[in-house]
What does this fold into?
Amino acid sequence: MTLDLTPDELLSTTRAVRRRLDVDRPVERAVLEQCLRLAQQAPNSRNSQPWHFVVVTDRDQVAQVAGVYQRAKAGFLERQRAEAEALPAGPERDAASATYQGRVEFSEKLARMPAFIVPCVDASTDAGDGTTPGPWGSVIQAAWSFMLAARARGLGTVWTTITPFQSELAEIIGIPHPDVLQAALIPVAYTKGTKFLPGPRPPLETFVHWDRW
Ligand SMILES: Cc1cc2nc3c(=O)[nH]c(=O)nc-3n(C[C@H](O)[C@H](O)[C@H](O)COP(=O)(O)O)c2cc1C
It folds into this structure.
């Protein structure tokens, strides 16, 4: 079953969901498969469909994957905490502390996530020097399609990356690293409530250039 969302609502409310992921509600395999079938329809280089998706639902593996994320983000979180503490008392500090706290809670919750999706590309199709955007330009669109399809079904996702820890993750879930590289690590769970709002974004003139930069 899908939510009653217009295309514009879907595109503007597919947020990074961290606090409202319902880790106690299982996600049906059939629903994940629907999202993956929609992901397959994404634009891709020469219709080569150069992607693989690892779906992690095994409880033990989920906990291990969460551990990799926690190790990968430990330094970042520590910096966020220190930056928040360095601010003078007031609304800005409160907001920074809340953001930090939210990310800590999210990180701790990952061990109980119903599923992780790991979109991957075959690195042999990438020159590795940034001159062949084909595989990456393909897998990223497929993964975003997955996230949109998930949102339409009441699921929340977050695009996360653990780049320097890819080999650790690869070992846990059997990805033949470095022949196959990971584009993202996407936790998936039903959301608590399905109403989300568009995120704050600056006006078009700050990033759109008509005819010339
Ligand atoms: C390349 C990339 C890497 C990201 N890495 C992380 C991450 O490691 N952890 C996380 O919680 N969110 C991560 N995000 C999610 C962003 O924080 C989020 O998309 C952005 O802040 C916009 O927030 P919104 O969806 O609430 O508007 C990442 C997003 C992208 C596109």
Observations:
- The first strand starts at residue 21 and ends at 22.
